[in-house]
């Protein structure tokens, strides 16, 4: 397409020297330029796919100053705290970030090639490059990410890393804007990322996909622990400590939420709420299962010990920014049901039933009847 452009430009110059009007040919060149940009997009989709296919989504680790400088030269990242740390050092993002950043710069150069000699103003070239780059990131790269999330082989920690990576790419759009301004000579305007709003909306669709994936993969992982449930429903005395599958599950959650520290706060909070909700519903379902025909008081007390363990985790503020007691709300139904049965407090239940400040407001009568039978 660049060869075609050059031929038309030569033809233009020749015709103009003979005094002919060449406006329509310039209009044609502008149409070809738009098509050229579309072709570039398709080519870079392939580039992004190859990068994503090779990526392990692990934070970059460097063991020497030369390696550190190499990363910082390929991606604008400045962190005083990290600079002061001894080697080996670990960046918060994976190799995906500098690779994609460099490819976006290559794309900008390729866009510019077609605009040379087209008699366009600096502002027009600048606007065209910004729009194309914005589209490359919001549509092409985001589309590649969304298709990647559908791969069942993608692990939970990898999804978390991708969300962290997109955050760093979004923040770097301000440097891309400076880069475009330096090339075109046009004054810098913010078209690409709304950096003032914190996390901009550039990868919103991909991030929404990733958030859903985090919740789904987390539930799937929790189910692996919950499947190990082996309650003896006729237990005479509780063990005096939480069941092993619950302590393992809580240990897993504590370690996984440590890896959430670099995530946007709302993503970590949503995942934590989803996890607590899933555990509470699962414990309730164990008791109410059609397979369970008989339950002893000892079994209920054991379930109570397990619930207490979960409540302690919920109260320990596993992720920051949640209102106090927000996670405990997910265990309220289960807690009130267990309290009612363990204290055998039916007079209070019947007396307060239907009232707003009832002690057992969350206990559904149908659930209580099934358990009582």
From TrEMBL:
Record domain Exocyst complex subunit EXOC6/Sec15 C-terminal: where: 24-373
GO cellular component: exocyst; membrane
Protein name, UniProt field: Exocyst complex component 6
Keywords: Coiled coil, Exocytosis, Transport
Organism: Diploptera punctata (Pacific beetle cockroach)
Gene Ontology biological process terms in this record: Golgi to plasma membrane transport; intracellular protein transport; vesicle tethering involved in exocytosis
Pfam family, one: Sec15_C
Function per UniProt: Component of the exocyst complex involved in the docking of exocytic vesicles with fusion sites on the plasma membrane.
Recorded family membership: Belongs to the SEC15 family.
Coiled-coil spans in chain: none
